[in-house]
Fold these 2 entries.
Entry 1:
Amino acid sequence: MKLIFLSLLALFLNSELFSQENENEPATEVPLFEAGVLLGEPVGISIKYWYSKISAADLGAAWSFTENGIFELFADYLIHFLHIETDYGLFPIFTGPGLTLRIGNDWFFGAQLPVGTEWIIKTIPFTITAEIIPQWQLIPENKFVMAGGLALRLRFGTVR
């Protein structure tokens, strides 16, 4: 699993696909900023800032009510490499490297590579994100785990 994680990360960092702007501009506007909630376990807050129609930073903080009250932080740099346009909005597919930190009894620091899609709803100022997140927990123990979740966010502004 670690080899798969490292291979995907190397592909991401070396691919020309991720460094070029999409020539087919979507009709649905890409938000400049999003803020909302993370649903699932843990529950928390999520913000996303779009640098362009392709790249964004995703940050979050979450609290677990079942794992002895652990607190998690993450920061990801996301590349939206495919934008699927429908009558209901835009569905960008994304991936990108990130860091994660868990504070509590079962603490760790690690790297992650989220993969998912976001529904930028055309008619109302909300987005819904679904993702799976392979995590490589580096410290204090070297292990590989899978995470995932949903985010509901309110969107503000438009990327130009």
Entry 2:
Amino acid sequence: MSRSEASTNTPNVSIVKVICGGETGADRAAVDFALSHHVAYGGWVPRDGWAEDFREPPGLLANYPKFVPTQSTDPAVRTTLNVRDSTATVVFSPPLASSSGVTQTLTMANVLKRPVTVIDPNSAEADALLETFLSRFNVDATLNVAGPRESEVPGLYQAVTELLNNNLRFFTPTLL
């Protein structure tokens, strides 16, 4: 099915921006997906652009200049701001993965009363769960993507990339 054919099946859904904290794993898969499909990206990152694989300033800001650094080095600050600034959050994580970032994301989504779902990107139901969740939102939605770091769940980047590519019809290119 072509992108235009698929788009007619979901006429009221349009993710126009993907935000995340820029960390390895699910976050980075989402921003790389957005860039490869000309979807706007952004989000808050710790001061100096720190990430697991970009420890020295300017950090990941050198490769991803649309991220905005917080005034804090505490990753919880960026997590809270990204949940706040999104229409909804999807957390990509296997059921038994342990991650303080995932816990913070789910807590803040509850506190801020933002829609959130957790999807195991390797599960047989992942595509259907993501489609059901994204179908709840109208045009011009901003999706926050979160999940464990790649070091916590090896292979997460690839699994999330594949899942997002399977659901490309929900995303609207805005960068040309």
